[in-house]
Amino acid sequence: MAKKKKNRNVGIIGVGQTEYSSHKEYQNQAEMVNEAVRYALADANLSLDDIDCVIHGNMELFEMVHQPDMWHSLGSGAFGKDQLRITTGGTTGASLVCAADNLVASGMYDVVMAIGLEKLQEGHTTGGITNMADPLWFRHLQTGALTGSTASMMIEEFGEERAKIAAMKYRILMDKHACLNPRAHRRLGLDYDQMENLMNTSPKLVGELRLIHMCSQSDGACVMIFASEKKAKKLSDKPVWIRDHITIHREETFNNFGIERPEWTMRNAARKLFERNGIKDPLKYFDVFEMYDPSAWWGLDWLREFLLLDGDEHLKLLENGEFDLDGKLPVNPSGGVTASNPIGATAMLRPAEAAMQIRGDAGPQQIRKKVKHALASGFGGTMWTVMVMLEKELNW
Amino acid sequence: MKRIAICAVAQHKCNSNQWDKRFQGMLLDVLEEIQEQTGFTFDEDTGVRNVITCSDDVFDARTISDNGVTDVVGAHYRGEEKMAQEGLNGLGYAMASILAGHDDVIYLAGHCKESQPESRNVCTNLAYDPFYGRPMGLDFLNVAGLQARAYVEKSGLTQQQMAKVVVRARQWAARNPYANATDQVEHGEVMASPMICDPIKSLHIYPISDGAVGFLLASEERAHEFSDNPVWITGFGCCMDSYFMGDRDIASNFALKKAAGRAYKMAGIKDPKKAIDLVEVMDCYAYQQPMWLEGLEFCKDGKGPKFIDESGPAKYNVNLSGGMLAGNPLMIGGLYRAAEAALQLMGDAGEHQAADVKRAVVQSTTGGAGQFHTVLVLEQ
Description:
The complex is a heterodimer of chains A (396) and B (380). By secondary structure, chain A is of the alpha/beta class. Helices cover 38% and strands 18% of the residues of chain A. In chain A, helix 7 crosses helix 12 and helix 10 runs parallel beside helix 12. Chain B has 14 helices and eleven strands. In chain B, the strands form two sheets. A nine-stranded mixed sheet of chain B has the order 3-2-4-7-1-8-11-10-9. Chain B has a two-stranded antiparallel sheet with strand order 5-6.
């Protein structure tokens, strides 16, 4: 909805998720997809007959399956239906939500089911991610998804002690949320009195990016069902409305910008999205933010960008507990990506959790105050961003 | 429903080994050609804010194959979404993005270099599940052999008729500046070419091809800013068949018939034989041309061979580009088909321009033995 109103409104009417874990030897990819499809259909109280179009996404080279939607059709319910496959790296899950929004709003389909999945156990994640780098120029330099540069930039800006404590506080907060979420993969039971210890003993990956800061490799699938306003109102008691979405990519290299930090895609996307929707103070407007945070350092750094903050405002908010479940803007009640990361689904988990929060059906991690306005983000590729705005009411 | 415009197309000439250019270079060529034709920009207010790309991680041997092309499709600080299927689906998705009101101008670009991998069959073997299909050695070529055999049994298609399809494809390809295999072949040469997967002979198989295609699409309101004679997308449909070959009736055109039915319905077409005067089908193998034409309802079930003998392809202007048999990459075979159909409807097809064409249907397929089909209707 870049400039004008959508052709018609689109509601989320069903969400289904498998549990996320490091191993799922008891099911193959199509079976794992099927499990999440069944949960989503049950959640929406629909059958496959009600679905007009299925959209599918994951990363081919993680599991080394070419055109995996062909095989997954055994479990996805796509047989006999229109089906599209859209992938954008880590942002895939969120891109599928954007695509579903477009497909339903277009009038071409009334009910669309989106499937994001990954079974990282069956491949080599770091090898897969390293393979995204240009084979001539960068592949020999790429270290999978591990980068220590954000940690060193934050340490330089805020001092070593404050930055390291903040990143660890963020990490432990995410784990506290994950421990509430019965589907989260890593529920470590961390507490704030372990901060000092973890800061020094967790194995270093790259610089001050330590193992404890980094996201997991998970297996799992997430499915969401979308319907046109008319159908959503008929089929669901509490549809959650997609207000707007935006995708901002950037080219793969950073080196032609010299030493000056370019505008992060997170800020670029947030700026444009909030401006065209008249959101002046995102911190005040949104009741929950589900953010794709691949590491504690990235998550914390990006909060400043997404919320259009300056200086150390994001650190202060964290230090004052404002991102806690009872804070000003709860961040990642699901536990976020450091807890669960089935990559092709990860960016869909964000709007999925946000929708459940708006519905009031999030379970143990439900935010106590009423959730009316939710923000979700996806991250992928070479610092790409997708943002999705969800609303409880159709009154914007 | 409103119409969506194709304002411009650009095709990179297909070659079997474009060793002197990376796929980024090929994409840049098509982008610059379209910018030259239309003057479009990536201005945030008046230009392209969203790009759709089409490519494949396995063929590119790159995870997230679109991350290597962001700059050469103009998506730096813009939106970009990758259609990770045969590219014709990208046109369907572009249609949705514009109809939804989210965008009004979209640039779409697809690329594939089949010369890069060890072999196409190594890539498509990976489409089979690691438990049953893959260890058996299934790939898109040998499952096509199974389908061709089943279709021969059903329809009585002969080697003579398949040779006829190939000879005609090369004749048309010679007039298409973007086609790859333009060498003329005699009927006897096709008949004498080595048997690869009975009944598929080597000259029945589309040649290994590198290519790139670009499109500029716009809403009905804005189309005329970029083109004086836009072509309109009026119908889109696709359909998935089942996965295991044993679960499918592989000579039945199950998915294609449904995809075509949906596209025709959206375009308001009741009788395609009356309504359509140009057809581009994705015939990766010679047997597929008559078979897909059955699925598109140009002849009755099992009557494809007769249709070939009675010069049906000439009557309906089938594959005047030369088709896949003249060589386009698998992942963007449908995009090349659509580009050709669009040029024909614009009247810009040059030496192979057909007379008086008003409405075209374009078909593409993804997966083994046509597990998935896509159909697009274009109008003047």
